[in-house]
Structure formats: structure tokens, C-alpha cells
Amino acid sequence: MERLTQEDSLERFNNSMPTPNVVGPAGTFSGFSGPHAPQDSDLYKCVHCGFCLQACPTYLETGLEAESPRGRIALMKGVNEGRLDISPSVVGHWDMCLQCRACELACPSGVEYGKLMEATRSQVKQHTKRPLIERVIRSIGYNTLLASPRKLRLLGNVLKFYRKSGMRTIARSSGILKILPGNAELADKYLPDLSKKFFVAKNQIHPARGIRKAKVAMLAGCVMTLTHAKTLEATVRVLNRNGIEVHISKAQGCCGALNAHSGEVESAIKMAKKNIDSFLSSNPDAIVSASAGCGAAMKGYDELLAGDSKYASRATHVAEITKDIHELLVEYDFETPKNALKVTVTYQDPCHLRNVQRITNAPRTILESIPGLKFVELSEPEVCCGSAGTYSLTEREMSAQLGQRKARNVIASGANIVTTGNPGCAMQLDFALTEVATENSSKRTTAVRYVVDLLDEAYGPD
Ligand code: SF4
Ligand code: SF4
Fold first, then answer.
1. Residue of 191 and 20 predicted with greater confidence
2. Looking at the predicted structure, is the pLDDT value of residue 27 above 50?
3. How far apart are CA 438 and CA 419, in angstroms?
4. What is the rounded CA–CA span in Å between residue 105 and residue 98?
5. 293 Cβ below 6 A of ligand 2
6. CA of 354 to the centre of ligand 1 (A)
7. CATH topology (fold) of 344-459
8. pLDDT band for position 24 (cuts 50, 70, 90)
9. Residue 349 burial (CB count, 10 A)
């Protein structure tokens, strides 16, 4: 495809936009209205300078203004001012956004792009009708499965059976996946590996080793309990080893990040309230998350519940005491491990750790503390891996492009292990490394681990 210069891309985009004085017949335009609409004070902070363009993964991949933060904000303004309808093509450009928020870091005007996009997606949900099958899948996913850890585990067990019983082989060879609705073939292809034993929150209290320095409530999460149960167990061990008592309340659930990012604000609010009640019941010094995306979501509970008189102050408290696992370990001056790991390791910054929580040093400090470990940096650490929650299924092509871009950088680093701190990134790296190796007809040589897995290993058994 022809690659435009930044100026040409902008010119073409501007020429395609209705000018401010072209107003359609009354009632033609829906505009933004109803709850959770983007606020003018946020929208008009953008001065269209374009500093964010080169930070945006979808712009880097396409070179198109409409796939840049500035272009998407211009579309929001177009709708807000009644010049544009919330049409499928406009929604398509918003859907292509990963919500990685790299643009926020690059923006000199302080545009809170993540906030704008969440509000815009809520408007899309309110004012448009997605195809029936998509609505059914979204409703089951966001309102039934993510809302109930028990139902999610049930699905996990069904998927394990699907893989192990031979049903998967039959489904693939029969061609039924091609005719089933809802991207069944893609979902099957990118079915992640599931943990042998799921991690279940059941009011466990894991005492600190030695003198207790702190008491924390731990978020188990949703997908991570099914895909990376061993990492959650390692997280508990590492915390205990560092004098931190861990409470894992049964009443907790999904943090609500996937819902909020998809415009399902009401269900995200319900999930946040459930977690606030659950976590604060043990009166913890901190709430810890081993998943970057979940930690970022909980640090945003104050904004999500700002208008709720019953929950606002407790939501602010939760946001203030929530810590990412790496952040917490460094704050509590974690014990330096003694066992050497003779490996070359790189680190993939999860966007919600780097761009949202602004944590980059803590994971590297932990890795560099491990004796024998050689740490190497990745090229383009700021570019999203393309996982972005459900994006890897809904925007498969862009997600795969970005995944392979990241995998190629990982391979070029020469590391035999790539570490991260987020389940979506871990799964995406796993798929992308395999895909790139298959394309190159070579053997995959890089494993994917969490930083906390390596720290646990370097501590050795108690
Ligand atoms: S979002 Fe920020 S960096 Fe991007 S065009 Fe607007 S003001 Fe400039
Ligand atoms: S959030 Fe990420 S993908 Fe979306 S506009 Fe910003 S930089 Fe681009």
C-alpha cells in the first residue's frame, strides 16, 4: 500500500472531513449525548500539533492520519460539533485504537486520551447497534463471564476439555469453525495455553516470613487466574518472602478494565464496587496486582466512581493504595536473591505499566538484582505489543502486525527469555514468537516469563 508522508496524510484526512459550516438536515447527526460523554474540557485540550503521531503504534504501522491520536480526536470533535455521524467508518478508526496511551506520554498539552476514548466508546455503545452476533458475544463476555470468576473457570474447564478430548482436532478438520459466527476460527487459533490448576481466590491468608512489614490484599484477576496461575502463586511467595502478609478475598472479581475500555462503563462500575468492598474488608496497607492492566484500572477507580456519593471516597482510597507488584517490591526494599540464573533476559514494557502507571525502572531493578542474569534492552520498548485486551481478537490484523514487530525486536535482542508483567502481553508474545519462528522456518528459542517468576526462581525454595 502507498505510504503517505505525514503532511500528505493530514491533507487527505482534512479534505475528507466536512467543514465546520456544513451542517446536515436537523436530526441527521446523533452527536454525543447521554451519560459518560467526552467532556469539551478534555476534547478541546488537543491543539492538533501532531507530536503524538510518531508515538502511536497504529500510525506507525499505517501512516494514516485517521489511525493516529490526532485524527481520532478530530473525528470525536466532528461528532461533537454535529459535522459527523457516528458511522461505521468513524467507529472503525476508534476501534483500531489500542488504548495503549503512548500518545499521552508524548502530548505537550496533557490530553487525557485514555479518558476520551473510554467515553467515546461508551457513546458508541449507546448510539449505535453493532451486529447481533457481536452484541450477544459482548454481552456474554462482559456481563456474564468477566462478572463471575466461577463462570469464567467453568469456561476454562470446557476449553481444557475441548483441547484435550480431541474435539479441537475434529472441529478444525471438519471445517465447522469456518462457518460458526463470531470469529470462531480466530478464537480457536489463538486459544491460549491454560494452567493445569486454576488460581482460585478463597479467602486465603498467606503469612509473612519473618517480621511482618505490611499486610496487602491481592487481586487475583480474571484471565490471569486461568492462564498464569503459577505466576500468581509465585507472586504470593515473593511477597511473603519479603515480610508481606497476603490476603486473597473470595468476594473479589475482575477489575473491570476490559469492560471500561470497551465502553461497558456500567458493568465496569459494578465490578469496581465489588472489588472496593472486597479489598477494604481486610483493611490492607496496600492492594497489589501482578497484572499491569488491572493495576492501572484500579488506580483509576477514583475517576470511575467520582460521581458516586457512597463509593467516591473509598474508591479514592483504593486508587491511592493500589500498587503494581514491581512497584511494591521496590518500595519495600525487596531482598536480593542469592541463586544465580545464567540467562540472557529482556523486558517488554506493558503499556499500562509504562504509559499509564509510569513504572519503568522497578521491573528492570528487580531483573538486574538477580545474580548471573544478563539484562538486555529491547529496541522500540515504547511500542505496544498489540495485545490490548480483546483487541487481539477484534482487530486481528493490526494486533498480529504489532505482535510480530515486537517478536522481531525480542529475537534481535538475543535474549533467551523475554519477561513482562501483564497476562495479555505474555500471551501475545508467546503467539507472536511462535508465528515469527514458523514464518522463518526456524526453531523458537525465546521463552516468555514474568519478572516475578524469575525473582521467585532466584529466591529458590523456602
Ligand atoms: S493529542 Fe496532544 S500531541 Fe496529539 S495532536 Fe493533540 S495536542 Fe498535539
Ligand atoms: S492510545 Fe495508543 S493506539 Fe490509541 S491513539 Fe494513543 S498511541 Fe495510538
1. 191
2. no
3. 21
4. 15
5. no
6. 19
7. Rossmann fold (3.40.50)
8. very low
9. 23
Question: Could you identify the residue written with the cell 492492594?
Answer: 287
The third-level CATH classification (topology) of the domain covering 204-331 is: Rossmann fold (3.40.50)
pLDDT of residue 431: 95
CA atoms of 435 and 207, how far apart (whole Å): 42
Q: Could you tell me if 263 and 389 are in contact, meaning their C-beta atoms sit under 8 angstroms apart?
A: no
Q: Is the pLDDT of residue 421 over 60?
A: yes
Q: Do 204-331 and 344-459 have matching folds?
A: yes
Domain 7-21+30-127 fold: Fumarate Reductase Iron-sulfur Protein; Chain B, domain 2 (1.10.1060)
Q: Is 99 in the pocket of ligand 2 (CB under 6 A)?
A: yes
In the block, cell 519479603 appears at 242
* Residue nearest atom 4 in ligand 2 by C-alpha distance: 97
Residues 68-107 pLDDT 10s: 999 999 999 999 999 999 999 999 999 999 999 999 999 9
Ligand 2 centre to CA of 383 (Å) is 10
> Which residue's alpha carbon is at the smallest distance from atom 2 of ligand 2?
100
Ligand 2 atom nearest the C-alpha of 96 is: 3
Structure confidence at residue 28 (pLDDT): 45
CA angle 199, 200, 205 (to 5 degrees): 105
Report residues whose beta carbon is within 6 angstroms of any ligand 1 atom. Answer: 46-52, 69-70, 73, 103, 106-107, 109, 111
Distance 121 CA to ligand 2 centre (A): 14
C-alpha of residue 216 to centroid of ligand 1, in Å: 38
pLDDT of residue 387: 95
CA nearest ligand 1 atom 8, residue = 49
Eight-class DSSP state of 54: G
- Specify the pLDDT at position 1: 60
List the strands of the sheet with 286-289, edge to edge.
204-206, 244-248, 214-219, 286-289, 322-324
Q: What's the rounded Cα separation, in Å, for the pair 359 and 351?
A: 10
User: Tens digit of pLDDT for each residue in 273-285?
Assistant: 999 999 999 999 9
What is the chain's Cα-based Rg?
22
Give the residue extent of every domain in the chain.
7-21+30-127, 132-189, 204-331, 344-459
Distance of CA 39 from the midpoint of ligand 1 (Å)? 16
Residue pLDDT, tens place only, 103-131: 999 999 999 999 999 999 999 999 998 88
Give pLDDT, residue 172. 85
- Give CA–CA dist 380/395, Å, rounded: 21
**Number of Cβ within a 10 Å radius of residue 6:** 14
Q: Which residues contact 154 (CB under 8 A, 6 or more apart)?
A: none
